[in-house]
Amino acid sequence: MTKRDGVYPLHGRTRLIKMGIAAFSTVRKSKMQKAALVVAILFSFILTPANSFASNPVEGAKAAGMGTAVVAVADDPSAIAHNPAGLVQLKGTNIYGGMTFVIPSTTYTSPSGQSEDTEFQIFFPPHLYFSSDLGTKDMRFGIGIFSPFGIGGAKWSREGLTRYCSTESMIATLAINPTFAYQVLPSLSVGIGLNYMISRTQAKRMVDQSIFGADDGEIILKGIGDGWGYNLGLLFTPDKRLSLGFAYRSRIKVTHDGDIEFKHIAPALQDSFGGSDFETDMHTPSTFPEIISFGIAYRPSERLTFELDLERVGWSSFKSADLDLEDEVPSANFSDSLTPLDWEDTWLIKVGAEYRLNESLALRGGYVYVETPVPDPTLDAANPNAVQHNFCIGLGYKIKKLVIDFFYNAGFHEDRKVKNEILSGEYENFIHSFGFSIGKKF
Q: Tell me, what CATH number does 434's domain have?
């Protein structure tokens, strides 16, 4: 969760809540009828993108130090992720890899003024790239392994204010991206890649069973899936001071296959579920968004580079979330569902700069503005996304054919106050991100 930002199955939360309210207003319902309706509400379970899903993913420390404003620069092996056409700038054989450490935090404040913080977590998505000119002048081949979407999310107390909405949400992705680039003209290069992505998702929430005189139950959903996509890039350099870049990354459709488990079921509900625990296979499709990026880089001197990027992320692919259960429990209204998400496409504005003090040392900085794709009606504790302002700094050090890059990113989120049918309240978010990459030329 998410989802850059984030990503998924919803168990008809809004629909089930409305059904439950309407049904409970009807008199002379039996206890088991009411139980079934309560379970319908309790199973309005969400597996959504993580906090950082819809933000700005890190796929290389040099790029991250410049706020990932590198579409028109793309001069290291991480060009595979940012603009594959940039690979033509690399000679020989190159390896570049590292890791990012992400520390998110969220504070939720209820309408009554009570507050709760997420538990401390660290996520560490890796990245690794290989490129080679294969002994040719104009062609390059490369392969990248990185995390393009979401790396972790909010983890709340199992006894806290948000426990019936979410106690844990996570989305992790890993892309394998073989790439080919070609120098069409001295000033123009093109790149194309095939993108295979694996996605793993997990979410947990507690179940309020006090109406039956029982302790909380717990719902756990886990799934994994994969899908295919592609990416394209263009790099145009009319002179040594100016370059223009374009990159496109396609949508990827993934069906998460896994299971959903309801644990510690209240005795009053156990007849419907056949015991105190219930588990069934589930399937839920998701479509990760397309990404379109434009960039312009200007070099007033050999040591100084400025870049401005605009990026469009097609989060509107998250129109709804579908859930298909292998074994349904109709008496408890635990069945297949479709829930609207109504996410919106977003813009990212990126500004980055690099200044080379000498042949060995480079200083970098950047800023990224990130719109939120999540509308108020579908925002909750599983994905408390908001408008982001990311401030980045970086350092690069080169020793002969070895390069070491570091970065730090402070992710400030605007406070988000919502009133909806899921969980009204105010959310405050902040994300620390830092990491490194090490490269070697052969």
A: 2.40.160.60
Q: Give the 3-state secondary structure of residue 276.
A: coil
Please write the tens of the pLDDT for every residue from 388-407: 999 999 999 999 899 999 99
CA distance 99 to 272: 47
Sign of the dihedral defined by the CA atoms of residues 108, 114, 117, 119, in that order: negative
pTM of the model: 0.85
Whether 138 maps to a domain, the answer reads: yes
Instruction: Give ∠ CA 99-102-104 in degrees, rounded to 5.
Output: 175
Farthest-apart Cα atoms in the chain, separation: 82
DSSP codes joined into one string, 157-222? -TTSTTTTT-SEEEEEEEEEEEEEEEEEETTEEEEEEEEEEEEEEEEEEEE--GGGT---EEEEEE
Distance CA 154, CA 151 (A): 11
The sign of the torsion formed by the CA atoms of 421, 422, 423, 426 equals negative
Spell 208-247 as b/e; 16+ CB within 10 A means b: bbeebebebbbbbbbbebbbebebbbbbbbeeeeebbbbb
* Cα torsion angle, 162, 322, 336, 220, sign: negative
Give a yes or no: residue 384 inside a domain.
yes
- Taking a C-beta distance cutoff of 8 angstroms, is the pair 194, 177 a contact? yes
pLDDT of residue 279: 95
Give how far the C-alpha of residue 239 lies from the chain's centroid of Cα atoms, to the nearest Å.
36
State the total domains in the chain.
1
167's CB contacts (< 8 A; 6+ apart) are: 155, 156, 157, 158, 160, 204, 205, 206, 218
Task: Establish if 7 belongs to a structural domain.
Answer: no
- Residue-level pLDDT at 152: 55
With respect to residue 46, please indicate whether it lies within any of the assigned structural domains: yes
**DSSP-assigned letter for residue 1:** -
